[in-house]
Design a protein that fits this description.
heterodimer, A: 380 residues, alpha/beta, Rossmann fold, 5-stranded parallel β-sheet, 4-stranded parallel β-sheet, 14 helices, 35% helix, B: 346 residues, 60s Ribosomal Protein L30, Chain: A, 7-stranded mixed β-sheet, 13 strands
C-alpha cells in the first residue's frame, strides 16, 4: 500500500531501534507520553514496546476523543435519542461507550431509539434531507481534527436552509488537556507522574500547527515531538525525544513534516473560529472539569445547537469508583494496575473510558499487548 | 376443463402474500421459479420431503441462515452465498456434501426478477459444488417484516472413513495453513453499503470449498487435525476458538498472511483489522508438521488455494493467546473482534 508501507519498513525500524538503544543512557529513565489514541494504537498494533530498551517507557495519554467523553454526555444523547421525533446520527465507535447504569447508545437503539451510524458528517445532512418531518441531530465529537468537518456541515445546513438539523457539540481541544495533565496533578488524589517528554498529536497538528505547543514546551520545560501515526514515525519521534532529553533541550520538533507545518490549516482554523467558541469548562472522563477545553456553537449559529433547540441539561455521572481510568489517562497507573481490567472491564463490556475505543490505553493493551503480562514464550 | 392460470410475470411481477398461502400461486412460484432453477429428480417428485440413499459411514449435518445486506454484492448474491456457506460447513469436517434444503422467507413486494436471479445463482452454485437442493420451503411475510429476503439452508454430507476433524484436535507444533487472501468478502460487502459506498475492485471470495478439501484430504489424510472456514469474525475469531477448544495458543507471522492490496487499503481507511474481516471462500487448516508441506502443495495446485500459505504454528499456552510477530518486528495479540463492526455480512 503506497504511502503506508514505506512507513512500516522493518529494516528501517530495526535500525532506529538500534540507534535508540545506543543513545539512551542506561542510567536514565525516559518516560514519554504519547498524547493521541492513534499513537497508542500504533504502539500496540505493531508491538513497538518490544523494540524499545527497558528504560524507555511509553505512557498512554488521554488523546482518544471517544474515551474522554464523560458518561453524562452519553446519557444526554440517549435521552435525546429516545424522543420519537429525533434521529441521532453518531460515529460507530460511540455506540458502545458506557453511559450511567450500564446504558449505551447501542442498547438504546435496541430498545427502539432511532440511532444511525454514519461515516461522515455529509451522511447526517443527507439523512436530514431525506427525513424532513424528523429532527436530525449529529453527535459531534473529536479533537481539532474532526471539528472542521462539523463546521463545514453547519455551513452546508445553512446553505440548504435545513430546519430539522442540529449538532450536539462535544468537540474538545488538545493543548488545554496536555496542560491540565502537567498542571493539576492532585485532581482525584492520584499524584504527579513524571513525564520527560511528549509525542505530540499527528492529525490534530495538521489543523492547529506546531505553534500552540511552543508555550507548553517553554513553560513546562518538556520536549514535544509532533509525530505521525505510522510506526516508523513513532520510532523516529522517540529517538528525537531521547536526543532532546540527553541534550537537555525542550523544544517543539516536527517529525511529521510531510503533513504538519508551524501554522496549521488556516482555512480550517478560520471556519472553526467563525462557528465555535470556547466553553468555560468541559468535563473529560478521567480528568474531570478542564477549563477552556471544549467548544460550543456561537450565538449566531444557536439554531443549529441541539443543546439549545431541545433545552438539554447537563447530566453529571460519577465514574465507577474502582475504575482507574483517571490515573491511567494521566500515566500514573498502567491498565494492569486496575482491579477491573480484564475482569469485569473488557472491550465487550467496558466499564471505564480507556476500554471503550481500540485507541484507549486499556483496550489497546487488552487487545494487542496483554500477552506480555504473562511470562509466556516470546514470539520467535 | 383445465383451470387457466396466468403465467408468472417474471420481468415485472413481484411476490405477494398469496405466494405464501399454500394455494395455486404458491405452487406456481415453487414449480415455475425454484424447480426451474434447481432442477433435479428429487424436487421433480413434488413431495414434502425427499428420500435418498447414502453410503455407510459417518454423516455430518449443518444449518445456517443468510440475512446479508445488500442481497447482491460484487462476486455473488444471497443465493450463491447460502449454498457456499452450508457446503463449506459440511466440507470443514472433511466430508463430501451431498444434499441441501433451502427455506425462503420473502417480504411481499420482492421482485420476481430478483428472486429468479437469486434462485438461478443457487442452482448454479449447487451444480458447481456437485450437491443437490432436494427440499425447500417458502414463506411470505408482510412488507417491513423482512428485509427483502432471508434464506436458510441445511445440508448433509458423508465423511470419508477414518477421518475425524474436530476443533479440539490441534496439537502443539501443528502448522496453521490458510487457503488464500483474507478479508475479501467483508470488504466487497462494505463497498456496497449504502452509507459507505467506495470504489474497489475487490469481489467476494464466496465459493464452495469441498473440492479443495477433497484434494487436501487426499494429500494429508489424518495429518489434517481440523479445518474451519473463517467467516464472521475472520481469521482472528477462528483461531481464538480453536485455541480455546484445543487448549493451546498460536504464533503467527504477519508477513506470511496473504492480503490483497485493495483489502489492506480498505481496512486501513475504515480502521478495521483485516484479520477480523469475514471470508466466504477461505479455510484454515491445522495440520501435523510432517503433513504440512504436501497439504500446502495440494492447496496451491487448486484454483481456490493458489495463494495458500503456512502462517504459523500451534504452541503451548495456558492463556490460549493467538500471538503474532508483526511485519514491523514487534509482537502483538490477535484478539477476538469485539462489537458489531459489520452487521449482516452473511
Amino acid at each position: 500500500m503506497k504511502y503506508a508501507d514505506e512507513f512500516r519498513d522493518k529494516e528501517i525500524a530495526l535500525g532506529l531501534a538500534k540507534t535508540i538503544r545506543a543513545e539512551a543512557d542506561p542510567q536514565k529513565l525516559y518516560r514519554f507520553m504519547e498524547f493521541c489514541g492513534g499513537h497508542t494504537h500504533a504502539i500496540s498494533r505493531y508491538g513497538l514496546e518490544d523494540m524499545l530498551p527497558k528504560n524507555v517507557r511509553m505512557i498512554h495519554g488521554p488523546g482518544c476523543p471517544v474515551c474522554v467523553l464523560p458518561a453524562g454526555r452519553i446519557d444526554m444523547a440517549i435521552r435525546l435519542a429516545e424522543r420519537p421525533d429525533v434521529i441521532l446520527c453518531v460515529y460507530g465507535d460511540l455506540m458502545r461507550v458506557p453511559g450511567s447504569q450500564g446504558t449505551s447508545l447501542l442498547k438504546a437503539k435496541a430498545r427502539g431509539a432511532d440511532i444511525r451510524m454514519v461515516y461522515s458528517t455529509i451522511d447526517a445532512i443527507r439523512i436530514a434531507e431525506d427525513n424532513p418531518g424528523r429532527e436530525v441531530v449529529f453527535f459531534a465529537i473529536g479533537f481539532e481534527t474532526t471539528t472542521p468537518p462539523t463546521a463545514v456541515m453547519i455551513r452546508l445546513a445553512e446553505k440548504k436552509q435545513l430546519e430539522n438539523f442540529t449538532v450536539f457539540c462535544n468537540h474538545v481541544l488538545t493543548p488545554p488537556a496536555m496542560q491540565n495533565i502537567l498542571e493539576s496533578p492532585d485532581i482525584r488524589n492520584i499524584g504527579r507522574v513524571e513525564i520527560d517528554g511528549f509525542v505530540g498529536p499527528a492529525h490534530v497538528s495538521t489543523i492547529i500547527g506546531t505553534a500552540p505547543y511552543e508555550f507548553f514546551a517553554e513553560e513546562f520545560g518538556k520536549p514535544v515531538v509532533i509525530a505521525g501515526f505510522e510506526p516508523l514515525d513513532m520510532m523516529q519521534a522517540i529517538l528525537m525525544l531521547v536526543r532532546q532529553v540527553n541534550e537537555d533541550r525542550h523544544e517543539v520538533e516536527n517529525q511529521y513534516s510531510r503533513a504538519v507545518n508551524r501554522d496549521g490549516n488556516l482555512r480550517a482554523k478560520e471556519e472553526v473560529s467563525d462557528i465555535f467558541e470556547l466553553r468555560d469548562q468541559f468535563e473529560w472522563r478521567g480528568l474531570g472539569q478542564v477549563p477552556y477545553s471544549g467548544l460550543k456553537l456561537k450565538r449566531p449559529y444557536a439554531i443549529y445547537d441541539a443543546e439549545v433547540r431541545f433545552d438539554m441539561h447537563e447530566l453529571r455521572v460519577d465514574d465507577n469508583p474502582a475504575c482507574e481510568c483517571g490515573a491511567i489517562l494521566r500515566g500514573v497507573k498502567k491498565p494492569v494496575d486496575c482491579k477491573l481490567f480484564g475482569t469485569v472491564c473488557t472491550p465487550e463490556t467496558p466499564i471505564g473510558s480507556c476500554m471503550v475505543s481500540s485507541e484507549g490505553a486499556c483496550a489497546a493493551h487488552w487487545t494487542h499487548g496483554r500477552f506480555r503480562d504473562h511470562q509466556q514464550r516470546r514470539v520467535s | 376443463m383445465k383451470a387457466y392460470q396466468r403465467k408468472l410475470d417474471i420481468r415485472n411481477g413481484c411476490v405477494d402474500l398469496s405466494h405464501g398461502s399454500g394455494g395455486r400461486a404458491m405452487a406456481q412460484l415453487i414449480s415455475g421459479l425454484f424447480h426451474e432453477a434447481f432442477g433435479n429428480e428429487w424436487l421433480a417428485r413434488g413431495n414434502d420431503q425427499s428420500a435418498f440413499d447414502v453410503g455407510a459411514g459417518r454423516m455430518v449435518m449443518t444449518t445456517d441462515g443468510y440475512v446479508v445486506s445488500p442481497l447482491f454484492f460484487p462476486g455473488g448474491n444471497i443465493g450463491s452465498l447460502a449454498v457456499h456457506g452450508t457446503v463449506n460447513d459440511i466440507a470443514m469436517a472433511g466430508a463430501r456434501p451431498l444434499y441441501l434444503s433451502a427455506s425462503f422467507i420473502i417480504e411481499e413486494g420482492f421482485r420476481f426478477a430478483d428472486l429468479k436471479m437469486i434462485a438461478e445463482s443457487m442452482g448454479e452454485a449447487a451444480r458447481t459444488a456437485d450437491v443437490h437442493i432436494v427440499t425447500g420451503d417458502t414463506k411470505v411475510v408482510e412488507r417491513g417484516k423482512a428485509d427483502g429476503l432471508f434464506i436458510s439452508t441445511a445440508g448433509v454430507g458423508v465423511v470419508p472413513h477414518g477421518l475425524d476433524l474436530s476443533a479440539e484436535n490441534a496439537r502443539v507444533g501443528d502448522r496453521v495453513l490458510i487457503s488464500g487472501t483474507l478479508g475479501d468478502h467483508g470488504v466487497a460487502i462494505m463497498s456496497k453499503r449504502q452509507n459507505l459506498a467506495f470504489e474497489t475492485e475487490i469481489v467476494s471470495d464466496s465459493a464452495a470449498l469441498n473440492d479443495l478439501v477433497a484434494k487436501m484430504v487426499e494429500a494429508g489424510g489424518r495429518g489434517i487435525r481440523l479445518m474451519r472456514d473463517p467467516t464472521r469474525g475472520g481469521l482472528a475469531a477462528t483461531l481464538n476458538e480453536i485455541a480455546q477448544q484445543s487448549d493451546l495458543g498460536f504464533h503467527l507471522r504477519e508477513e506470511a498472511i496473504p492480503l490483497k492490496p485493495g483489502v489492506a487499503a480498505a481496512c486501513e481507511l475504515l480502521g478495521l483489522d483485516p484479520l477480523h474481516v469475514a471470508n466466504e471462500g477461505k479455510l484454515v487448516a491445522i495440520v501435523a508438521p510432517e503433513n504440512a508441506a504436501p497439504v500446502l502443495a495440494a492447496m496451491r495446485a487448486h484454483p481456490l488455494g493458489r495463494d495458500a500459505a503456512d502462517i504459523g504454528e500451534a504452541v503451548a499456552d495456558d492463556h490460549h493467546f493467538v500471538q503474532m510477530a508483526t511485519s514491523f518486528g514487534g509482537g502483538r495479540i490477535v484478539d477476538w473482534p469485539s462489537g458489531e463492526q459489520l452487521p449482516r455480512i452473511c
